[in-house]
Amino acid sequence: MKTLVKNKKGWIAAFYLAATIVLYILPYTKFTLPYIFMALAMLVSVPLLMLENTKKLNYMLLLLVVSLLFAIRCGFFPDYRIADAINEGIRNIRFFLPAFWGVYALQKMDKKQSAVVLIVFSLLVVYIFINTLVALEKDPEIARLLARSVENSSEELNAYRLANVGGFGFSYMMGMVALCLLWLFFIKKNWWIKIGSLILYLAIVYYAFQSQYTTLILLTLIGSIVLLFVCNKNFAFRVILIVVGIIVLLNIVNIFRGLSNAFGDSIIGVKFQRIVNSFGTGDIDNLGSRPRLIRENFEVWLRNPVFGAYSKEANAHSLIMNILSQMGFVGIGLFGFLFYKVYRFVLNEAKKYQYGRSLFNCATAYLLALSILNPIGYVFEVTIATYLVVCLFIKVFLKKTVE
To answer: What is this structure's pTM?
Structure first.
């Protein structure tokens, strides 16, 4: 009887996770559905997850308390309404909530249930992926243009969203998917899986270059190298990889110059040339507006290092720097503590599967780097990929080695 109830709960969870993935990743639903509905679709799982077990309850209470403190701090910001402050706390909950879904999948769902959710995710991604590649053929900058908020978008951009063309969130989520596929290529012995995962990985790398997100390209390639290192235990291979890495670093300027020439006057070609110029002059402002924005936010933070100094105009183009400037050491300390505890919470389950630790560590590093380099506070596709999709890959493709 207990097994039957557990199996039924697993299928209900699988249906819920699949439905929520569609809501949060499909551009059409993100654009058309009301904010309150989207938020409740996630938050409805909070009380259910709290009832699962005491350990999960403790972590959930930690998430809720930290999020409440974030909301209280935002309540003291000038120009912030009470609704804005509450929304900031809810945003923080939604940012980390997929971690609890991932742990639930590893603990409570069987392989078949997890596979169904992963298949739904895969079909959805392929659909948006194809739509976006077609759109990029017409307008090479469309993935970047869709990074604009809906409030500042034209009817033409909104038409692309209605046609399920991916933008900023989808693109960076694909970087995480690429790492999952490369990890699968490294750990599986079945050649059909190896060939299939490698082809899909290369397709995503191609997409990364087409989307013209420089940070996406660099993070995906660096993450791939790290995965190559951690998944291969051969000492000689690791030494060779380190030597090759040193050679690449010594010739990094020439590599970026070659990439700049290859991509010509495109946005990505210009960005690679800026990197070359930055190395040549030693002026990081050649990289674009991001160094200036970070510097301005750093100056805002210095007004009140402990509790932060809110500035309506400040935007560091970085989640981490925004928290530091607005909430000071207290805010970044709370966020860092929560980030670490959630990491340990998921890792404790992921490491029970052979090679699970390597994938989750790499995914967490990707998320952390992205949090430093981009404003991803509302980019829930990325945390869904980091915490839920990664756990689904682990559950479906690995055997549990520790109970």
So the answer is: 0.92
